[in-house]
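Following up on my earlier message about zinc ion. Here are the inputs again, as you asked, copied directly from the submission form:
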Amino acid sequence: MAILKIVYYGDPILRKKGKNVSSFDPSLAQLAKDMIETMYEAEGIGLAAQQIGKALQFCVIDLREAEAEFTYTFDGSTPPMDLIMPLVMINPTITTTPEPVTIYEEGCLSFPGIRGEIIRPDAIQVNFQDIDGNPHQISCNGLLARCIMHEVDHLNGMLFIDRMEKNVLVPIEREIKQLRKKTRKKE
Ligand SMILES: [Zn+2]
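Thanks, got it. Here's what our run produced:
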């Protein structure tokens, strides 16, 4: 297993839409293991392929350490969380219910130290494939829904700062620009 390097805002890969995954081979399983390990090491609850430098429809999520209430069904039933997490989500597509919405302060491993409140729908349905290519469906709300929406945004080249209201974004704009500058200098 390997800890992968997480890329920061300013790296152009974060703006790339991920390619659909069509080959469910051992190298994909290895990538999943490495991304899960990298997410744990960084103490994150989700990590998208773009964040480790690959533009793929591929992300990992684990909310077992997060103190949050949410409900979910996985393929129509509610198995214990240990059976579905870490969650490897491949080629996910989300359907949201526009109302109700919730406000929650999000962070992102590609934006160290930067947080901001974002309005998102509370409940979603997501269709995706697992590491063997089998299709699944999750219906959920709360932090699980929010985390999936945040990660799936990454897979489409969208970042949480794009979803911040102006009054949230303005106070942290300088920090964001500094991060971008620092990242670009390193390249
Ligand atoms: Zn993120």
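One observation from looking it over: The mean pLDDT is 96. Hope that helps, and feel free to reply on this thread.
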